[in-house]
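Example record

One chain of 123 residues, shown exactly as stored in the release files.
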Amino acid sequence: MFRITKEFHFSASHQLFGLEEDHPCARLHGHNYVVEVELESSELNRIGFVRDYRELGAFKTYLDDCLDHRHLNDVLGDDCVTAETMARHFYNWCKQHWPETSAVRVKETPKTCAEYRPIGIAA
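Predicted structure tokens for this chain:
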């Protein structure tokens, strides 16, 4: 199996609901997000790629045009603003564009990472 990844960056705010009042994530706050898209294939194309990295530029355009420097609760909805649910949202977006998409990881900080990988797709 061949596997490639590409990293993307954007900045945005969000607020998590249902947490205790003193939890820092209950307050409006922001992150410099890092999103890593993973694609895999058992075969390479005629050039020798899983997918040309340049083709993934459409995801960068989506992030820049729809999410960068925005309030994610407004854009994605209140139930789609944890790193975990964002990873699933981005996976679904990418899978529609590139069937080789196997996982998406979202980092809110350099020390934290959430991944969405459908059942049956091994790491």
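Notes: The longest helix spans residues 83-97.
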